[in-house]
Amino acid sequence: xxxxxxxxxxxxxxxxxxxxxxxPADLPAIFRGMPDSVSFNKLRKRLLRNVRQAIEDFGMLNxxxxxxxxxxxxxxxYSLLALLIDLQWRGLLPVELxxxxxxxxxxxxxxxxxxxYLASIGVRHRIEYRDTYSIVKEKVPAGGTYCALCSxxxxxxxxxxxxxxxxxxxxxxxxxxxxxxxFFMNFxxxxxxxxxxxxxxxxxxxxxxxxxxAYAAEDDLAKFAAAMQxxxxxxxxxxxxxxxxxxxxxxxxxxxEARMPGRxxxxxxxxxxxxxxxxxxxxxxxxxxxxxxxxxTEHLS
Length: 301
Fold this sequence. Notes:
Blueprint (H helix, E strand, L loop, with lengths): L2 H7 L28 H20 L8 E5 L4 H15 L6 E8 L9 H8 L4 E5 L2 H8 L7 H18 L4 E3 L4 H15 L8 E3 L6 E3 L7 H11 L16 H15 L3 H9 L30
Parallel strand pairs: 1-2, 1-4, 2-3, 4-6
Antiparallel strand pairs: 5-6
């Protein structure tokens, strides 16, 4: 089952995303030079449909005026930016977009790539330097994984930048596989049923975090990024470490998908169909009050 059919055929609310109308003639600069092929056009429309469905399902446009887009230089964040620009260009995303890259001080980080690329496509952007790399290297013991601390430091800075730029939301490029991997990490290692939500409010209550790629498949994003020839910047901090729990979850999911195609879509759909009365959490369902009702019988006189 494809992501499109998974989203549209099993929606309990019966929501429906209308086909894309003919776009304006003035193509955004980010799409100049893109492939003119049937396969790429299908891929682009599928990803746009995924994003539109997530925006609708999770009410991502409720009162939103300006979004800060976290752009790391990886395939996912580049694709997120391009798809949001595409929707904005088509008149389907009435928010202002600001791209932001947080230069975290990794050695040999190519500082020129992102600002030059974003300027070349005419995208408003902000490049922020904060040496969180040194903090992570200092705090994490030898052999430990950097991801958790690195992510917290990065998120804190992005929240600050979003406030300084007057943004309502921080928008991140996490996709279907990220959500499934996080679920199984919590399931196997944290003893809880939880994952990355497509929409949440930060602890301070002043910013929304959005993940419009929640329904998008990582393989589709990889193909899209390669076709668009984005100037990819690898992560030499986290990517250099072996044995990360997330890598194990990724390999497990890939093996399941290879053995039983379509299982990723099924698992993602399951995350949207929770049944508290059939789980074991008394905080979500009042099992204490669950009793049988006496059967009414008629007494013959």
